[in-house]
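Milestone M4 deliverable, item 7.
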Amino acid sequence: QVQLVESGGGLVQPGGSLRLSCAASGSIFRFYAMGWYRQAPGKQRELVASIFSGGSTNYADSVKGRFTIARDNAKNTVYLQMNSLKPEDTAVYYCNHSPPFPSWGQGTQVTVSS
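Output delivered:
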């Protein structure tokens, strides 16, 4: 069974930065594309960034140039560096495979507010 554990969220002021981490177990991590998703209150969950097994990346237009996704296959971990955060980035952030597996982790709350 795949297990995903997200961490690194918190409260940050607009313009600030956070680095999220996701430890994955139970899958052959290095063969899969991984993604960071987020869900804001009252909205559908959306994919914000993905990284393929070879290292190429894709970003949603709303985060392009501000967020960077990376992976460490030796540690079965995927990261999301978030810079120049805006209030509209406030959401629960999740990692999963891309496309996602049925099982989701608890997510980590990111709140951008002054």
